[in-house]
Amino acid sequence: MCILPKAFPISCIFSRQYPLRPSTMTYDDVNHLSAKIKPKQQRVELEMAIDAMSPNYCRSKGEQIALNVDGTAYDETNTFSSKMMDKQSFTSIQATTNTCRYAAAVFRKGELHITPLTGILQMRPSFSYLDKADTKTREREAANEGGDSSQDEAEEDVKAITVRFSRPESEQARQRRLQSYEFLQKKQAEEPWVHLHYHGVKDGRSEHERQYLLCQSMDAAENSELVKTPKEYLTMLMPPLAEEKLVKPVGPSNVLSMAQLRTLPLGEQVKTLLKNVKVMPFANLMGLLASGTDSTAALRCIQQVALLVQGNWVVKSDVLYPKNTCSPHSGVPAEVLCRGRDFVMWRFTRERSVMRKEVTAIIKLPPEDVKEFLEHVAVPRVNRGWEFLLPTDAEFIKKHPDIGHRQQMLWLGIQSKLEKVFNFSKEDFGPKDSPQPEPVHVSGEQRLKAAHERAEGNKSSLQRQLDGRRAGGAVDVKREHVSDREDEPMDASSSVPNGSSNGHPGAAADHGNGGSASSQELQDFVMKTFRKHFVLTLSEFKRLLSLHVASMPVGRSVFPPISDHMLQDAILLCHCKQIMVPFPAQTTAAPDEQKVFALWDTGAEFDKHRRVLYDMFNKNYRIRRNALQVKLSQELGDVPKTDVNRLLQECCISHAGMWYLNGTLQS
Asked: Which residues belong to any copy of the DNA-directed RNA polymerase III subunit RPC5 C-terminal domain (predicted)?
């Protein structure tokens, strides 16, 4: 216990501890040379003498340390005046910042006297004298290098001085400065030291100060009777504090604590490992589990959370993408992600490598999600697509034929569901090394007959398209030209439904009774999308359409083959117009990103505000807010600021003080 002088109130009591010293080796009999305190910071420093005459003291080392610190010259500021390290310093640190649960207790004559503590300090050795030695070393090195010559000094006399005025300090910069180490050190140095006189435990002054720890007023009238139960009284003395609870550090999501992992049930251990690793052989899994784990129980657990692919276990899709979640990249629902990932895993059960474009064209999900599926279980190879991550574990399949057969039946069930969803046949994806059927020889007469049949079919199909256009009054002279070349389909990489099929804008009528329904569904999607986004590039609209198709329920019919021309015609028929944005010559935008469409007519009064904005973007690819305000005032009169804000928020994006139509800002 460190007892302070009478200048400090009895409530300012600091408990002093020496955590680096055994409790049996106290400093009570050591000569204390000096003591000082900074009360506000609760910082204490003590200097204690070292017995240089002890047989355990190395005199040569003590002299060497004193020489390094003070040098050969004698000065009043020397740390060790006796030319020998004959003292050591101790500096305090706070053991806790909240001392309301701690008190100094004195038991005397059957009475317990409790006094609250202001602070609990731990005294640790201070080696600040070594900093002084380093400073002297640097000074000696600077002196050895020599001073500047007179010529250099003359040059410095005529050196120009640049005057700079500091900018006003922002609030954010001020907060950083107040939390900086340099500022905190400066604040600590501002509080002056208060020098103390140390009195030992057995000293009479210490005994006098300890009397203040006893309650001076023992009048029964002032003391209330204790009516609490022992449990309630203990709760009052030491109330539970939520802030005192230690929070375990949260590690990265891909880092597992094996010690904590092995405290979980076996099923949770297997699930956690597979969820983090994604794919692993069964032998590796047993190596990560605790020694002595039953392999039969582990096999039972792993079949609940993983599927067998090429003899290795791959975590199930519904474990990675639980129900009611969505993709962090594109927002696609979890059930759609599970179907797409199951297709990727099924492909790897039939072959070692798959092509990313083939997978994307079938499952019609955004490229970011497809890439994530492949990165879980495969690695990219040059000119070979994505190859399965691990070699085939033939030993496991040979050792557990019953599990292999059971997993094969599961994959057959998954395959039948995937065939219905994605409309493919397993023969479309036969193994690369499977025997190919013998080539069929077709005679010249058969080829000529097939060509005539194709020509007649194309002719009748084209005639139906032209009849449909004339009936609808939307005849395009440029597209009526009969040619052997059909419209160019959309790029399959954009993940638009059935983008690999060709077709004219009127091809929807080529699908029998379902053509009109599909066309109406497409127009409904266009209207719903543009009423939400107002302005879209063609590439962005194709992305939204892909997400819409991917989220359709299982078994629902999807859109027919759709080309870029069909999409543009559908957009223009839904009260939208194309904005001819004059992009700069050095633009890096793709052709689909330069085709900008905007909602033109909704029947609302606010449509005329949008038309003014669209007219400005027909003349420039970016505008300023004040220019839009002036244009609106000229065309529509006084326009409130809220209407301008709404117009810009609905249709534009801001960058560097300029406004661009949505989707037209180039990074």
From this structure: 431-667
pLDDT band at 154 (very low <50, low <70, confident <90, very high): very low
Least confident of 17-31, 265-279, 369-383: 17-31
Would you say 36 and 45 are in contact if contact means Cβ atoms under 8 Å apart? yes
Give the H/E segment covering residue 105: strand 103-108
pLDDT for the residue numbered 597: 93
Same domain, residue pair 382 and 527: no
User: Any bridge partners for residue 116, and if so which?
Assistant: 103
Domain assignment present for 156: no
Q: Which of 353, 355, 314 is nearest to 433 (CA)?
A: 353
Q: Whose structure tokens read 């007023």?
A: 217
Q: Do 425 and 561 fall into the same domain?
A: no
Residues 20 and 109 in one domain: yes
Same domain, 514 and 607: yes
Kindly state the percentage of the chain with pLDDT values over 90.
12
Reported in sequence order, the residue ranges of 234-384 that DSSP labels E, i.e. its strands, are 279-280, 306-309, 312-315, 353-354, 378-381
Looking at the structure, tell me whether residues 417 and 564 fall in a common domain.
Answer: no
652 SS3 class: strand
Query: What is the band of 479 on the pLDDT scale with cuts at 50, 70, 90?
Result: very low
- Separation CA 358–CA 351 (nearest Å): 14
Axis crossing angle, helix 641-651 with helix 625-636, rounded to the nearest 10: 120
Domain that holds residue 361: 258-429
Decide which of 377, 402, 429 is a domain's last residue.
Answer: 429
Q: Give strand pairing partners of 309.
A: 312
Q: What gap in Å lies between CA 133 and CA 70, rounded to an integer?
A: 7
Contact 129, 79 (CB under 8 A): yes
Same-domain check for residues 605 and 566: yes
Looking at 243, 278, 306, the residue that finishes a domain is 243
Specify whether 269 is located in the same domain as 418. yes
Q: What is the pTM of this model?
A: 0.34
| Mean pLDDT, all residues of the chain | 77
- Give the rounded percent of residues in the chain with a pLDDT score beyond 70: 75
Report the domain count for the chain: 3
Residue 659's H or E segment, with its range, is: strand 658-661
Read off the pLDDT of residues 215-242 as tens digits, 9 standing for 90 and up: 877 665 555 566 788 888 888 877 776 6
Decide if 456 is inside a domain. Answer: no
CB 620 within 8 A of CB 569: no
Structure tokens at 323: 């129900």
Average pLDDT over residues 445-454: 63
User: Are 356 and 225 in the same domain?
Assistant: no
Q: Please give the angle made by the CA atoms of 608, 613 and 614, to the nearest 5 degrees.
A: 95
